Amino acid sequence: METINFEDRFQEYVDSEQKVEPKHWMPEPYRKTLIRQISQHAHSEVVGMLPEANWISRAPSLRRKVALLAKVQDEAGHGLYLYSAAETLGADRSDLVGDLLSGKAKYSSIFNYPTRSWADIGAIGWLVDGAAIANQVMLCRTSYGPYARAMVRICKEESFHQRQGYEIMLSLCRGTKEQKEMAQDALNRWWWPSLMMFGPTDKESTNSAQSMNWKIKRKSNDELRQEFIDKTVPQAEFLGLTIPDEHLELDEKTGHYQFGPIDWEEFYQVLKGNGPCNKERLEARNKAHDDGRWVREAANAFAKKTLERKGENSAA
Amino acid sequence: MENPLLSYTLFLADNSLITGQRLSEWCGYGPILEQDIALSNIALDHLGQARMLLQYAAEQKGEGWTEDRLAYFRDEKNFRNLLMTELPKGDWGYTVMRAFLYDTYHFYEMTGLLQSKDEQLRAIAQKAIKEIRYHAQWSAEWVIRLGDGTEESHQRVKGSLLELWPFTGEFFETDEAAIELNGRGIAPNYAHIRTQWKAKVEEVLELATLERPEDGWMQSGGRNGAHTEHMGYLLAEMQHIPRSYPDAQW
Q1: Which residues in chain B touch residue A118, judged by CB atoms under 8 angstroms apart?
Q2: How far apart, in Å, are the Cα atoms of B94 and each of A34, B137, B237?
Q3: Do B153 and A298 touch (CB under 8 A)?
Q4: Does ipTM surpass 0.95 in this model?
Q5: pTM of this prediction?
Q6: Least packed by Cβ within 10 Å: which of A301, B142, B144, B229?
């Protein structure tokens, strides 16, 4: 009797560049990997609102205030699409949020750094959104259909955010001496954490090989990091800012920038919860959730009453 | 006295600006992601309206005034917003109750301005009215949901309503500028707005199983720049960067 190996057939299907859809058979580890990755991504969008929301009330012009508020609101929207994408895999949004609040689930470590000045809003848009886009453009071609489609929508908005961030940096760099110092200081603080956003080096990355096979990922961490650096260095030069890396140098042969060693000890410390704002971020999410409990209960109670009244009316 | 049209434009502008500033404090902290988005959207509408009105006020003032100079370089005593708009955001119930009382008023005010003989105010009202209709519906729905939700939510919004009520009298005060502008067909008749507001508020409160508080002593002063203690903190936070770097462009 011939036995059909589902795993092999799944791999053939993915290799033929077809999208996996929610009702298709998929290996359990594929499902689990995706739920973990998509929900982490959703959590990152939601936690990522906090460092930027920090500056909405203090934005230095009304135009900037409106743009920042709209941007942070977009991040909430991205969180929603992504939670929905995770739900197509059988996950439950409230469980996923529960894992975030308990500290079990991870989110992007970059959001555990503080936003100290208005220039940080520019630097986040330019660098953090820039790094996110490098990753997300790749994910537009990921093998899981709902995730790929969510990414297409998200990428459009993210590139708009990145332009806004760069435009803030440009205004600062063309401004007064203090403004330019503010911009340089923000670049100094956000540069290395942005490079860490791509994750550990390929040698150290534990999940990467399988994800590449399943075409969840299509480029390695190191490839994406290099792309980002190559794109960003000329942008910094245009701003007249100095990237805080004395080893940074264009390799004429390859056309790529060589860069100095990344402090992975810092990366793992922030990941473990020892970053400057890990505690605040998680506390803020928990407080919002706890403060909102009575509101959610009331909304549910009212919805139930309304349904019952409708039932009574149609019975009568 | 400042010219009445300028004074009235700033009154409208400051109500929108301070409301937008307060509501935007919820961004990232809503009780559920969907409502975080909804409230941020509403805050954006108010800020958008504030910008149009401040640009119009700046145009009237001339001499290098801009929307940002009006927002960031006026002192507290020159802000004309209603006291209610500057009160701290409170809990979600307080925020939606305030929004409901104010949005309902704002809706009738803007409906009146659709007939304004001032072309700019009329154009702004035409642009804003759809947004404001949605705000008023959204906040009324939340008042009903919380009033008729659980015992806890009922008690909470009941308390918010009692706290906020003394700030509703100021909505309908008419100063000299407002009387003159009403006479010229520029500003609506606030006595008329009051009648419409009262009827709508009573209708919604009844659906929310809440009692309308008795009219007692009403707080007043915002229009003349006599603000609550909260206003200073709000402005300190909002204005501090442009004031620290007065020569900078952002």
Answers
A1: 241, 250
A2: 40, 16, 22
A3: yes
A4: yes
A5: 0.96
A6: B229
